[in-house]
Amino acid sequence: MPSAETTPAGVREPEPVRPTRDDEVAAAGSELIGGPIGRRALLGTSWWTPLRVVVIVAVGMFALGMVQKLPCYDSGWFFGASTQYTHACYSDIPHLYQGRGFADGLVPYFDKLPGDMDYLEYPVLTGVFMEVAAWLTPGSGSIMLQEQVYWFVNAGMLMLCAAVIAVCVVRTHRRRPWDGLLVALAPAFALTATINWDLLAVALTAAAMLMWSRSRPLAFGVLLGLATAAKLYPVFLLGPLFLLCWRAGKWREFFIATGGAVAAWLVVNLPVMIFAFDGWSKFYTFSQSRGVDFGSFWLIWAQNTTTPPSTDFVNTAATVLVLLCFLGIAALALTAPRRPRFAQLAFLVVAAFILTNKVYSPQYVLWLVPLAVLARPKWRDFLIWQACEVAYFLGIWMYLAYTTSGDAHKGLPTDGYHWAIAVHLLGTLYLCGMVVRDTLMPERDVVRRTGEDDPSGGVLDGAEDVFVLGAATRPPRHADHFDGPQVEWGSRSSEGGSL
């Protein structure tokens, strides 16, 4: 039976879940650092609280990721195209400092760029992030020095985003703070963090998830709207939220969240839409017009046929495929024997978009890492998936090294790169399969195994179903499946399913 501590108000709070006790892989790995975690760390009587440990580890791993880019920082970004690929240290950031007009003081979306790319092809909030970094970059010295400093400034700002993500994941599942170590130690997270600016949207999405877990739908909506203003994928989280609120009858909270998201997105985008529509729309038109690109199964098809699919066909087919996936997720949400957790469906919808999209840049793994941890905090499955993503990370750079090294052909040929894509796809599908299994067999869900319902679900946590399709049954109350004491966290009773 889990032990509990008594608060000053006399309420017994459940002890945090120990991964080294409940997860065999975590227990085995802990032997490298002295064995399973002790009770003092669990109860916060030591300075080394879970939050501090996770943030320190996350920053440390981020710093190691920066060190991994050192060969490119010294010369690889500037001398010889293949060097940045053979050392797997490529980053868009220094190249776009001059390539997107920041070095010349051009204003994103308002000033046209020289060359084929007439406007900046990023969402508005990401463009603001890039511009702020440009303001902090001294305009003196050689262009090489300016690009180095620009990357370093961006890396510092992105490190803050990584720390925010770690904090949010630790605090979203309050009984499982040590799950944040999965984010902090994720190798693909460290390797891809400074390739592009995706961490801004990931941090805002993680903060939105935290706000929803605290039953603050307006704050959730505002943060999700800001995240969508930085990257498109966060808007997909409204789909699972709609389905779960439908099943639980929580319409008021859903409409508050949606209204907050729309308002926040408009506040960021509307001024640019009005005064620089052509520049604002570049992100959307570019996404539609770009052809089949790296990392997708569409590329395998295109490179293994004499009649590759057209861009219009791929756009239509990819849209149909992702909509079919969304319909399958909707059926799962409304027919599962127990209402799925919000994080589970959030992970599935983003993964579906990634798997069917016509491009998969290596940094897109950042979108999934926090959601994967909240959806299935199982070390074995998470590390299997991460191994697949690291294999793809190495595969794409070795393939680009092969294509840019001329007759030397240093790197991975096309067939080898196709296998790397397949490994990425299979790894993501494997983790999706585990999450789907947890929703259909909730007794296998490691989060619910400790007696909780939906710790990231906010008002959905412990709520009764009011609409269910098929033969699904009402979710059991905690008292029906929890072998520990009846507890209360904060002002919400354990009978309602809260933490």
From TrEMBL:
Residues 12-21 have a biased composition (Basic and acidic residues). Its main location: membrane. The keyword Transmembrane applies. It is a multi-pass membrane protein. Signal peptide: none annotated. This is Membrane protein. One of its GO terms (molecular function) is hexosyltransferase activity. Keywords: Cell membrane, Membrane, Transferase, Transmembrane, Transmembrane helix. The lineage of its organism: Bacteria, Bacillati, Actinomycetota, Actinomycetes, Kitasatosporales. GO terms for cellular component: plasma membrane. Belongs to the glycosyltransferase 87 family. It is found in: Cell membrane. The chain crosses the membrane at residues 47-67, 149-170, 182-212, 218-242, 254-277, 313-336, 342-361, 382-402. Residues 1-21, 475-499 are annotated as: Disordered.
